[in-house]
């Protein structure tokens, strides 16, 4: 139909039809999109208020974060910071400085059990990438002195990040996905999404409300089972996040049968080996939950639980090798254990 022939009433009807169609696409079937970004499967499910534009914008932001923060790819800002270690500060956008600053904060809160300069150790082991291997003890000893978060210089006035010693490597892998989840949530809300679930390789954040008004229910991964199996359910309101760090995420089994995973003890340079198999954080900020899940895992049950208890709006679920589950004091209000193979336990 030629618009020039439209009467005012017809135009009005067209607008009404357009609005109705929009409303149907918004509250109709869920919209799903998944892609490989940040080294993992990132998926977004919009239940209310979805649009292709919202999904495009969300994945564009994810790729932007990958292009600046990935330590494994060439050409990223983090790669440039690493190449210039011992030489010169490197211009870094505000988001890279923010995420680096957060990582340094968790490093200081954990006396370096969490340390974003773990890069030289990560690189030696190469777990989850081609060429994973058990490094020689001498290699580990040579790399350990380069793990030193205290020497990192983030200069907000100059807009730079500097690693003062050659060979130092910044690795934001323990915290970048959390930041990315917060950013995707922000972008979706900006695009008028009303209800969505963001899942960045198990780093989950819920946005807004479910169309039927019921709370969000997110399963917590069973660390002894294949992906998809749960040990229980977290019941959440919009804006909440569930992030898990565990021995099952990335690992390899050495020739002698030893299971090495991707969270490293900054003192020994070997995988953290403290009896824990996973730590889940339930909170509202995904960058903090991601930073904390790795931090508490590295600290171990006793010290990790103490740190969780000292923070507002943070709940933690620790699981150990004996399938014992330890909850922070407010966790039972948001998490229900549903798997008979696991038992709730109290800290000694
Ligand atoms: P995932 O990436 O599976 O969600 P984490 O958030 O726990 O798991 O991050 C693990 C990653 O953090 C490792 O792959 C590595 O890049 C980095 N890392 C390993 N050990 C440490 C550590 N002690 N402190 C900070 N980052 C670490
Ligand atoms: Mg983490």
Q: What does it look like?
A:
It is a single chain. This protein is an alpha+beta fold and 348 residues long. It has a single domain (1-348), classed as ApbE-like domains (T-fold), CATH 3.10.520. Helices cover 33% and strands 24% of the residues. The protein is built from 9 helices and 17 strands. The protein has helices at residues 8-27, 52-69, 77-83, 94-109, 119-125, 137-143, 176-190, 286-299, 301-310, and strands at residues 31-37, 40-48, 90-91, 153-155, 160-162, 195-200, 203-208, 216-221, 230-236, 241-246, 251-253, 259-261, 276-283, 315-320, 324-327, 335-337, 343-345. The strands form 4 sheets. It has a 9-stranded mixed beta sheet with strand order 1-2-6-7-10-13-14-15-17. Helix 2 packs antiparallel against helix 7 and helix 8 runs antiparallel to helix 9 (301-310). It is globular. Mean pLDDT is 91; it is low at 1-26. The structure holds adenosine-5'-diphosphate and magnesium ion. Adenosine-5'-diphosphate (ADP) binds at residues 114-116, 118, 122, 171, 173-174, 177, 203, 245, 249-250, 262-264, 266, 290, 293-294, 298.
């Amino acid at each position: 139909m030629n618009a020039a022939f439209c009467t005012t009433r017809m135009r009005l009807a067209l607008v009404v039809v357009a609005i109705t169609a929009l409303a149907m696409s918004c509250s109709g079937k869920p919209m799903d999109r998944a892609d490989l970004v940040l080294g993992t499967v990132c998926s977004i499910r919009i239940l209310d208020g979805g649009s292709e534009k919202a999904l495009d914008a969300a994945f564009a932001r994810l790729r932007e974060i990958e292009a600046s923060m990935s330590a494994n790819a060439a050409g990223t800002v983090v790669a440039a910071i690493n190449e210039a270690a011992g030489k010169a500060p490197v211009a870094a956008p505000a988001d890279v400085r923010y995420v680096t600053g957060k990582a340094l904060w968790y490093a200081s809160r954990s006396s370096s059990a969490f340390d974003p300069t773990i890069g030289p150790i990560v690189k030696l082991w190469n777990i989850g990438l081609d060429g994973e291997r058990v490094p020689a003890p001498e290699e580990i000893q040579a790399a350990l002195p380069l793990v030193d978060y205290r020497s990192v210089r983030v200069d907000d006035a100059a807009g730079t990040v500097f690693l003062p010693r050659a060979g130092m490597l910044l690795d934001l892998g323990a915290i970048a996905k959390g930041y990315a989840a917060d950013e995707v949530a922000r972008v979706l809300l900006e695009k008028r999404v009303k209800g969505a679930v963001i899942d960045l390789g198990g780093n989950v954040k819920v946005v807004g409300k479910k169309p039927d008004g019921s709370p969000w229910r997110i399963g917590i991964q069973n660390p002894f089972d294949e992906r998809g199996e749960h040990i229980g359910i977290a019941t959440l309101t919009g804006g909440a996040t569930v992030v898990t760090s565990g021995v099952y995420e990335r690992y390899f089994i050495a020739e002698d049968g030893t299971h090495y995973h991707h969270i490293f003890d900054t003192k020994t340079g070997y995988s953290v080996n403290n009896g824990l198999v996973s730590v889940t954080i339930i909170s509202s900020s995904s960058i903090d939950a991601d930073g904390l899940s790795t931090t508490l895992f590295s600290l171990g049950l006793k010290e990790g639980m103490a740190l969780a208890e000292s923070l507002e709006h943070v709940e933690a679920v620790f699981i150990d090798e004996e399938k014992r589950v330890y909850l922070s004091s407010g966790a039972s209000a948001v998490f229900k254990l549903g798997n008979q193979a696991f038992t709730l336990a109290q800290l000694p």
